């Protein structure tokens, strides 16, 4: 890897960049210098035989002009190559259907300290997902709004872009729709009390109330999960229905050095985080509002929802969590490479000695179970608890589930 440096006082700030870019730019610069010197040598060593000084001066002027044009062309090639290799021009802003606000957001910004002395780079690029280029029409629609006005009620459009890999979304200069949060309970009463359904945004959703949500199986980990007063959610993690259901106090007792902060990769309504909060453990819950207002519901319980897809690199520093809890949100459609990327990111944010709790992961086939088992074994985690069990589904068929508590090793 190479680096881009910015001189700041007596220190240096560095931004990593690809060696491919450095090699290509260095080669083009070397070619430009050699070509320029050859032209200069030819121009100034040339001796006319006629003695016509006017003709000689014109010839030198022509050669100098040629050299200058060559330098200008090389500089343009350098700038274009740097922009292409660094991703400066992923989205074609010259297209006629691009929203003006998208152009404004993606316009290049000058480096705060001016031109970089080593590379000559003078601009910064806006943060927007690389895959947004594939959905540029939807992205332009998302960025079509009245500046300083109310944002369109289009959260579902933004989520569609996220699920298509357009993440992060560009910022917008409009005010999001405000929904009065009336009747919120104080913590910790908020963990297990419902509030008015009017505080949630139901636009873009099939259900328009909690009763409708609780009548459906929204995903494998959320069947009636919005009933936090009388439903099974009140028993989760403190009362087992099968041998695959681990009790939360038992798992916390396995934690080396104590469990203080955790990350929940679950597709539920925040009950895991609620149980942890009762035990003075802070948990961040990854959410998306797929078929239900998960983020708003979790926040109404006084918990911390983090809105992003699992294809997004976790926005946390290395080795920070004492515990990572994952259920069937770990399922990435049977693609082993995707699961590897996800598992490596889980490992990155989990501290040495921390716990990875795999909770009732559905093994649809024996091959899937073996592939997951082999992947886990590659990480060298200590198996504190490992249970493979069967459950009968609604149609009377037996399904295999894996639950495990694994401890991350110290690596040197």
From TrEMBL:
Residues annotated as transmembrane: 24-44
A GO MF label: methyltransferase activity
Keyword Transferase: yes
UniProt keywords, alphabetically: Coiled coil, Glycoprotein, Membrane, Methyltransferase, Signal-anchor, Transferase, Transmembrane, Transmembrane helix
Main location: membrane
Gene Ontology cellular-component annotations: endomembrane system; membrane
Domain of life: Eukaryota
GO BP annotations listed: methylation
Location within or outside the cell: Endomembrane system; Membrane
Topology term for the membrane: Single-pass membrane protein; Single-pass type II membrane protein
Coiled coil: 64-91
Gene3D superfamilies membership: Vaccinia Virus protein VP39
Family: Belongs to the methyltransferase superfamily.
Name used for this protein in its record: S-adenosyl-L-methionine-dependent methyltransferase
């Amino acid at each position: 890897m190479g680096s881009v440096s910015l001189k700041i006082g007596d220190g240096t700030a560095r931004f990593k960049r690809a060696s491919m870019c450095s090699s290509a730019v260095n080669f083009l610069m070397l070619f430009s210098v050699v070509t320029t010197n050859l032209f200069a040598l030819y121009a100034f060593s040339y001796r006319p035989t006629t003695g016509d000084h006017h003709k000689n001066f014109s010839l030198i002027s022509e050669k100098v002009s040629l050299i200058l044009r060559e330098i200008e062309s090389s500089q343009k090639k350098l700038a274009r190559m740097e922009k292409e290799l660094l991703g400066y021009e992923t989205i074609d802003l010259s297209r006629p259907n691009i929203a003006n606000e998208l152009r404004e957001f993606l316009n290049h910004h000058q480096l705060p300290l001016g031109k970089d002395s080593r590379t000559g780079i003078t601009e910064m690029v806006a943060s927007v997902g690389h895959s947004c280029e594939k959905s540029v029409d939807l992205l332009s629609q998302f960025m079509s709004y009245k500046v300083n006005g109310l944002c369109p009620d289009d959260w579902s459009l933004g989520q569609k872009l996220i699920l298509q890999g357009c993440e992060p979304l560009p910022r917008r200069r409009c005010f999001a729709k405000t929904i009065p949060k009336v009747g919120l309970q104080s913590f910790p009463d908020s963990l297990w009390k419902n509030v008015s359904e009017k505080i949630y945004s139901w636009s873009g959703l099939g259900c328009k109330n909690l009763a409708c949500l609780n009548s459906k199986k929204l995903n494998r980990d959320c069947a009636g999960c919005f009933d936090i007063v009388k439903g099974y959610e009140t028993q989760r993690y403190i009362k087992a229905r099968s041998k695959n259901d681990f009790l939360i106090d038992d798992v916390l007792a396995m934690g080396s050095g104590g469990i203080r902060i955790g990350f929940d990769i679950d597709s539920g309504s925040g009950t895991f985080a609620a149980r942890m909060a009762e035990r003075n453990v802070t948990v961040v819950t990854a959410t998306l509002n797929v078929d239900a207002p998960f983020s708003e519901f979790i926040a109404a319980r006084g918990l911390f929802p983090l809105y992003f897809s699992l294809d997004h690199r976790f926005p946390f520093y290395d080795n920070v969590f004492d515990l990572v809890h994952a259920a069937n949100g770990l399922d990435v459609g049977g693609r082993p490479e995707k699961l590897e990327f996800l598992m490596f990111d889980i490992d990155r944010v989990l501290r040495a000695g921390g716990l990875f709790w795999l909770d009732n992961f559905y093994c649809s086939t024996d091959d899937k179970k073996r592939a997951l088992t082999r992947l886990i074994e590659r990480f060298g985690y200590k198996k504190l608890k490992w249970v493979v069990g069967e459950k009968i589904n609604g149609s009377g068929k037996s399904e295999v589930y894996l639950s495990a508590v694994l401890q991350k090793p110290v690596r040197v």
